[in-house]
User: Fold this.
Amino acid sequence: MKTTVKPANRLKILEIALLIGMAVFLASGAMALRTQDDLADKVVRLHVLANSDSEEDQALKLRVRDVVLERATELLKQSADRQEAEHLLRGDLKELERIAAEEIRARGYAYPVAVELEAAEFPTREYDGFTLPAGEYLALRVLIGEARGQNWWCVVFPPLCTAASADVPASALAAGFSQEEVSLITEENEGYVLKFKAVEFWEELQKRWN
Assistant:
């Protein structure tokens, strides 16, 4: 005898499935948010803001990025963790600013430049060989001129900006990342897209509650 499911029962089954799906998503978001917090405690981002979106200003941004990144990478070569990296960068901000200013003048521009180390919000961002979830991270920020142009993001500690894609896991592990965190950012962990979206969802909820 064939059993039929009444429309009302089908609706209840659908509602239950949706509730279960939402519960799983929220649980995944809470766990992923904790993972993002852990990652933020181990990372220093690099954030270079161009004067404008003109072709010339965008090219200058990359020139300034190169000299700042070279200096910062050399400075942080022996850093064991983010705390040590932060200490070294704070002590070298004036030198980094001087290097950036010299590069700007050498390229024929008179823009002022400021180099800061402060917390900043970042969206989920894919790089060559790894991805970082949205959230607040300590950032070395280089502001060129009016700093209204498209910006450039990466990671200065661990030195993931300069690491080849295949070297990212080893660099991250050396900086204190757990194997689970390495798997998450290098997309080896199944469902990482859902987890990162869940982080963005939780970040948005936090902003509304605050």
Q: What stands out?
A: Strands lie at 44-49, 113-122, 125-127, 130-132, 135-144, 151-157. The radius of gyration is 22 Å.
